[in-house]
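Journal club prep, notes for RB
We'll compare a predicted complex against what the paper describes. Inputs for the zinc ion case:
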Amino acid sequence: MSKKIPKKELLEYKRQLQERKEKIIRKLSELSSQSLEVEASNVAQDVVDKAESSYTKEFLLSLSDAEREQLLLIDDALRRLARDEFGFCQICRKEIGKKRMAALPWTPYCIDCQEKAEEETRGQ
Ligand SMILES: [Zn+2]
C-alpha cells in the first residue's frame, strides 16, 4: 500500500469501532437474561471467529438484521485495521473518502463501489 492512514487517525477509528460494537452488544445484554449477559461479554471478543459455536449463532440471531450486519462489518473493519488495510476500498483498493469514513468507519467499500453494488442488487 503506497499511501497510509496516519496512525493517530487509525487509533481514533479503532476507538469508534469498538465503541459502536460495545453499544450493540450492550443493547442486546439489556434485552436478555443475566446469564446471557455474562456470555455476551465473552462473545464480544470476536464474534466472527466464534461463529462456529451454536451459542454465537443464537447470539447473532437475537440481533436485528441491521445490527447483526453492522457487528460483522465492525469485526471485519477491526481485522483490516490490524492488517493495515483499513481505510481502503476492498473492491477497487482506492482510499475511502474521509467524510465517508467519519460517517461509516466500518464500511469496506468506497462510495462508487457501494453504489455499483447496490445498483446490481436492485437490477436482479
Ligand atoms: Zn471502490
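Talking point for the session: Residues 46 and 75 are 7 Å apart (CA to CA).
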